[in-house]
Hints:
Layout: E1 23-25, E2 32-34, E3 36-37, E4 42-43, E5 56-61, H1 73-78, E6 83-87, E7 93-94, E8 99-100, E9 112-115, E10 122-123, E11 134-139, H2 142-153, E12 169-172, H3 193-208, H4 226-241, H5 263-270
Parallel strand pairs: 5-6, 5-11, 9-11, 9-12, 10-12
Antiparallel strand pairs: 1-2, 3-4, 7-8
Amino acid sequence: MSTENPFEGLQISDTSALVQLPRELCPNCDTSHKIYCKQCTVPLGHTPPKVKLPIALHLFRHPTEREGKTTSVHAKLVAPDDVTITVDNFREIDESTGKPTVLSLIPNPERALVLFPSKDAKTIDEIDPASFDTLIVLDGTWKQARALASVLLGPQGDPIVPAPKYGLRPVKIQMRKTVFWRYQKYGEEHLATIEAIYWFMREYAVKHECAGDENSYDGKYDDLLFYYKHNYDIIQADYQQNPQRQFTTKKRNAENYIVRPPKNEQNDLLK
């Protein structure tokens, strides 16, 4: 991805129609939303692109994560047949199995990977593709995600603590830099949920569908970033059209986050 345009070269469907969409009532819950209903994951006023994922994706969202903040809903909107979202904190334990009750939603945990960069996590290259058919993603702030991971994979500290015997295996993606606009106190390699999902699917495609050839990747999972790119473009445009506004200084590399047009173009934007 380019520094100035992080989506350059990706085959993401045109998002321009989303800009002018009015607020609409969700047909399921009868509440007003713009573009999509966050609670019901229903698109409003448009038909999103469709993505077919190679494996099932199960998102476990921390109960205190705000629906309006999370990007996980983007995956459900573009890949509704392959994505499940469950809100749970894993505290309820099934006495008959000794496992978190919610894990009953994963019928074969030994065939599930947990996308989390624990110290013993392996990369896609190190895992037999025939050994898994489900990806679990922990949705929340990094603090919330660590809390969820500690239940599924064992405490995330030093030294490595043996994971609970649930059969789940951690997997990690290659080091990437986030383009998320929200402030978080961790490094730029800590991605938004939809970014992590996208890069996992892309790395999976390159390794197992393209025989390891990055140039053979055809962009089939790029539309996972459809809504993410739209939000990014809206934020960039807002600050570019209002150059007097200062982007939050709390964000790392904040001074370079907004791609400012040249001075003469800034003047044109203000006319």
